[in-house]
Specification:
Elements: E1 8-11, H1 17-28, E2 32-37, H2 40-52, E3 58-61, H3 67-81, E4 86-89, E5 95-96, H4 104-132, E6 135-141, H5 152-171, E7 178-184, E8 194-197, E9 202-204, H6 213-226, E10 230-232, H7 235-246, H8 248-258, H9 262-266
The structure holds NADP nicotinamide-adenine-dinucleotide phosphate.
Length: 267
């Protein structure tokens, strides 16, 4: 198990949600953390909150779909801390809705937020991570196992992330860079959690999740420390993965039926 004390990690999408909790868990474990997100007000508020807890994170606002802004994120981080030991590709955009109602623009936005952000950041941080034999972690979802109804762009993006991470893992073997992918189940939403709908509006999420943000964040830390390649979280996630492996036809049948239940449609 590797000690992360004194190591530097960029956590994308850490001005709220799971990314914020990942940043906190890494700070508590003794790492230096770079916080990031587009909304600079929220970013500064999170930075202040962590400073009041006695930590000294760096906060850099960036839209990671834009390569120039990723470059800025990586360069400022390296100038400040001298190196990067890990990149946690957490930024994403959850979305629910039926494909026939989703505009081409919305579909592209979801792909860009979930896939392109990670590709851009990884591309730019890679030379630094090769120098430190660091870690690259992709925060994915059980949506990368099998397509799910009402989530076509999200599934497409997370499956793309899985393919990208598998290729990268093999290419990075000779450089001894760790590449891991963490499949989260449905995480307990904070009170202000919203999800993008097919009409382009953001709606609150009300359902309780299958795991806490803290357990998701601890799994990321475990993945980095043990240099694990893949973790699938939650019992439903593990069942989904197993059934997809032994009988994908059965999984298709169950999920197709499930989409008509009220619980499934709620958020
Ligand atoms: N919540 C769940 O149940 C669940 C389940 C499985 C997987 N996941 C995955 O876990 C990750 C975090 O989820 P979450 O629920 O915490 O999401 P969230 O609350 O919606 O937070 C998403 C984060 O990503 C940032 N972000 C989005 N687009 C960005 C862009 N173009 N450039 C830079 N930052 C961007 C957001 O900040 P700004 O908006 O300020 O940019 C925010 O900090 C995502 O990858 C998600 O797919 C979540």
């Amino acid at each position: 198990m590797r000690d992360i004390t004194g190591k530097t990690f960029i956590v994308t999408g850490s001005n709220r949600g799971i990314g914020k909790v990942i940043a906190k868990v890494f700070l508590e474990a003794g790492a230096s953390v770079v916080l990031s997100g587009r909304n600079s007000e929220r970013l500064e508020a999170v930075k202040l909150e962590f400073e009041q807890m006695g930590f000294s994170p760096l906060a850099i606002s960036a839209d990671l779909t834009i390569p120039e802004e990723c470059k800025q994120l990586v360069n400022v981080s390296v100038n400040h801390f001298g190196k990067i030991d890990g990149l946690i590709n957490n930024a994403g955009l959850p979305m629910r809705g039926r494909f026939e109602r989703i505009s081409a623009e919305l579909f592209a936005e979801v792909i860009n937020a979930n896939l392109l952000t990670a590709v851009n950041c990884t591309k730019i941080a890679l030379p630094e991570l090769i120098k430190t034999r660091g870690s690259i972690v992709f925060i994915s979802s059980v949506a990368d196992i099998h397509g799910l109804p009402n989530a076509s762009p999200y599934c497409a993006a997370k499956m793309g992330l899985r393919g990208f991470s598998e290729s990268l893992k093999m290419e990075m073997h000779k450089h001894k860079v760790h590449v891991g992918i963490l499949r989260l189940g449905f995480v307990d939403p904070p009170p202000d959690k919203t999800v993008l709908r097919d009409d382009g509006t953001y709606q609150p999420v009300v359902s309780k999740g299958h795991q806490s943000q803290e357990s998701a964040a601890r799994a990321v830390l475990r993945m980095v420390k043990k240099r694990k390649r893949r973790i699938t979280m939650t019992i439903p996630g593990k069942i989904l993965s197993f059934v997809n492996w032994i009988a994908p036809w059965l999984l298709r049948l169950i999920v197709t039926r499930m989409q008509y239940s009220m619980k499934y449609n709620r958020d």
